[in-house]
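Q: What would this complex look like in 3D?
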Amino acid sequence: MNESFATWLLLAGPLWAAIGLYFLPRMAPKRKRDSAVSEHDLQAAGVVGGFALGPVGIGLFYLAPNLIRRFTLAAGITIAVFIAAQALVRVSDPNLPSALWLILAGPLWAGIASYFIPRRYRDAEAIDTNALTAAALGGFAIGPLIFGLTWKHTPRISREWIIVLGSLGAWQIYTLFAIHNATNPCVAAPFHLTYLTQQTANGVVIGSIYSLMAVGLTLIYSVQGVVSFAHGQLYMVGGYFSFYFLLHAGNILSELTGAEVSVNPIWGIPVAAVIVFIMGAVFERIFLKPMHEGLIERVSEYAILITFGFGFFLEYTTLAIAGPFPQRTNRFIEIRRFTLPRTQITDDFFFGPIHIIGDRAFAMVVGIVLIFALLYFLQRSWTGRALRATSQDRQAAAVTGINPTNMNTLSFALGSMLAAMSGAALIPIFNWVPWVGAEMVGRSYVIVVLGGLGSVPGALAGGVIVGIVEALGAGCHPDPSRGAAYKEAFALVIFALVLLLKPTGLFGREHN
Amino acid sequence: MMALFRRFETAIDNGIGRRRLSYLLIALIIAFFLWFPNDTSQSNYAKTVFISGFFYAIMSSSWALLAGIAGQFSFGHMAFMGIGAYVAGLIARDGITFALLGINITPESISAIGSIIIGTIAAGAVGLVIGWLLLRLRAAYLALFTIAFSELFRIMMLTEYDYTGGSNGLSLRPLLQIADVNVARQVEYYLMFALLIVCLLGLYWVANSPIGLFLRAMREDEDAASALGVNVVRYKILVFVFTSMIVGCAGAIFYSDVGSERIIPEQLEILQMSLIIAYAVIGGMESLIGAAAGAFISRYLLEAMRQVVITLPFGMTTADGSDAFVWDTGFWRFALFGVVMVFTLRYMRNGLLYPIITWFSGRDIAMKETVAIRESDDEHAARLETDDE
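A: Here is my prediction, written as structure tokens for the whole assembly.
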């Protein structure tokens, strides 16, 4: 096959799809059409038919336009088989940029499906809350088959659909990796299970601290409706408070006892928590309280700017005091790493041993304990219940004798405190510089949007998901040094996808 | 004091009028800026400070259009600036080929201006994608996403050092090639000043056009505006792309050896972005000229405050025997700046320059009248109610 013919073949599908999209709705004779067949039906028929069968498909739908309405699973499978056959021809030819084709196919069908399927749902007046998500995931995972599944009956998309399609999509990515980068440690047999589990474990460990920080952010949002843009800086000063406390406490104790004493960093966590709690409360009282008293115009803008200004102040003050030098405290525990033993399921199917760095494991335990303490506080104590009540309905809460002003202050102080505690828990692990918050806070935003702004379980799940995705992304990137640098990029991809597909997030309230 | 000011005010109102006085003042300011580089007593350093002042004035006045007038909080302004500069630099160095479209740009075939134009377009294109993705949602989402995005862009520029030079930065193609440093500085000064004027005129044109009115309406009440037939999302995206292009262009020009030799990823940090926001807030977010002046003055003050020297009175001496107390402010001046920003937001929402600007535009008279009318209306309504009883 010569090169121009190959290029032609590569373009043929999309080309006929474009022709179908343009001409079919304009040409299909009115008299042959059911009144129910809408513009969107014909457009979709043009794209799908043109893509799979070229001029034959367009002709078919031209002669029998009602067919698209009866689009059944069988038709979907037929079309998918045709497209798969074409794809195979293309991939098998060494002259073609087959990788490009395969990588583009998923997003391409995701785009096509997510344009047409929600419109079909709206035409059919069916429940379309999850139609967009299902269309995009399904288009990515199973290509045009998603048309066959949803077009005729417009079934209600439940959570199971999303989970199944999402898993299929993940499998697709895995297969692509296996085809195009066979030496990658994530897919290279027989170590891939060990490597993958190791990366996932790393993700879960660090993800629990991400969760802790994101819960603080989401707590503030759920009560006040304010996204704190000082959250990263509060995380950063939390670490520094812990650092300076340990430094001075160590010096004082050394002087008293006459021997070299170093204090365990775990004591820095409550100290940082108390100081930042007070800081948060004072800031809230002075700058955020007037907002709820109607003294300030355009509250949402003010909230963004004032918290951002607070973060600005904190960051430069820390720079002035601590200087731009990396700092780190000593370790939590002396154990270098924990090892989970090898798990053998069959001869070929095994994973492990898995190593977890001791300090990270300890930080995870701290994070989980704190999260459970917070959940206990929110669920069981009177104040915690009052907080939740205020987040659900301010007026009703006020009627039952809860002081919303105090709840605002409490939520901001508590949220800030959680950020500071995450900082104090991570300073033994990472090098601490005054701008360390910027990276972390971007990640927290991804987490809260993924989980749904204002949802505590969402933030918990989101933290672990983002942790895993980052660990897998960094671990599986073909170039390891780039993979580590682009850690945040993987989270940002999630951010963009969530905004595109489901801006309310996984657990969000449907009010956007 | 107040009485003196009132007499001065009446004298002005009866004399040349505030509007005309403000035109006179603007002319004087422009004349000062035009004259400044000819002052031989000024060092090149002072000119450099002014050049960067102009650059930051462009950045923060365009941010003021976005945030103050259109109500969109983007933290990605520096990133768009960086996109403009980096794309211009990469195109001028490596060229680009679109085989499918038959476009082939080689480093030899492109001029510095051409690369700047491509950089501007690239910034606009990225702005279009981000705007399309985010401007359908609430304001907080844009802020959240752009923070993450600009951090990602910085890391990308840092990591892909094979292309971008990493932390050493990237040199763009010099826009001006003048051997004599003094002359070069002067030309750069005028170029940047002209760019500032052009940008301000463009921003004012948008703010005062029907689009500007739509934007203000949307900021106040988005639902009401869209109910009245304003295509909310389209105008939001339009202004987002417009400001992205302005900052992309300004960045590409500034780093083409006009204000700075090379663009470094550090310039794209959130801290730098927060400085721009602070300038705009202190100058006045809802007034473009206020934001520009705020940026310029703040920039100048920050430069002047590098070292604070306090001469002690009455022959007092410090511990080491000198008669002046010298304080290297370091990062403290920025911390102080943060305090000023927060308190400005809380107590003078429209910026520290707002009273001056409203006084000159005579808007305070109109405001006083409106308040008076409203009060008399209230009294009138109250009287009607008592009559009913």
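A: To summarize the key features: The two ends of chain A are 53 Å apart (CA to CA). Chain A has 20 helices and four strands.
Q: Very helpful, thank you.
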